[in-house]
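Final report, closing paragraph on structural work. Over the funding period we assembled a curated collection of sequence-structure pairs, and we close with a single example.
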Amino acid sequence: MNAFTPWLLFLGIGFAGLAAAQDALKPAAFQRSGTDVFQRISSALDPASCTESAAKSTWMKEYIHIPDRFERQLIVMLPILDHVSYQARKRGLPMEYALIPFVESRFQPKAVAKGGPTGLWQIMPETGRYYGLQIGGKKDGRFSVIQSTDAALSYLQKLQIMFDDWQTGIMAYNAGDSRLRSSLRRQGLTKADADKRLPTGLAPHTYAYVKKIRALSCFMFDPASFGVNLPNDAVFTPLEADTDPIAPAPDNGN
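Its predicted structure, as stored:
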């Protein structure tokens, strides 16, 4: 043993202790509850999103059918709803965008529709490729909750910057931003209005899309009025991507 050995041993023990202390400070795998998710969403939604007509619309009745079964479905959706709302909040996007997968797929990552829309967000092949997703085969990125959400929110972020209005952004997501921009320009408009069916000439389901999001907003604000008890006590482990700190949601007067 040379003269430096005791010091090396001491340093080794010191570094080992430091590493152990740092490990102790690392956040352990933790769980989140339904309360965390639903409060995040309801506190960030714009109260104006829930209109009187939306609260009385038939959309939620069509979604719910049987309240007890719908509550069980919400429990299954929780980890994905958590991911989508967490990432939307992290990007500073309107929380209305986090409700899109409910309309598109009922939060089903493996959903496939005729004509090409695929996955949680029902992303078209060309849109997926533009935002870096592999399209086709077993590794189609549209089937990945994390990859598809990153791509969809990147697109929605672009639409939010473009229109500065969640309603117009959602209609553009459904109809295509090029088509919506052309319609707005021809009709001398800067924003869309689904209630007034403006711009005119779009598919009925594009106007209905916004109404569905409004109905879902009403549900998030007051689920009891729809005969549903939110699974606030349900506990789940969030995805690793959803454990970084984010800014608190703005106070929208809820």
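The two ends are 70 Å apart (CA to CA). DSSP finds eleven helices and two strands in the chain. We thank the funder for supporting this effort.
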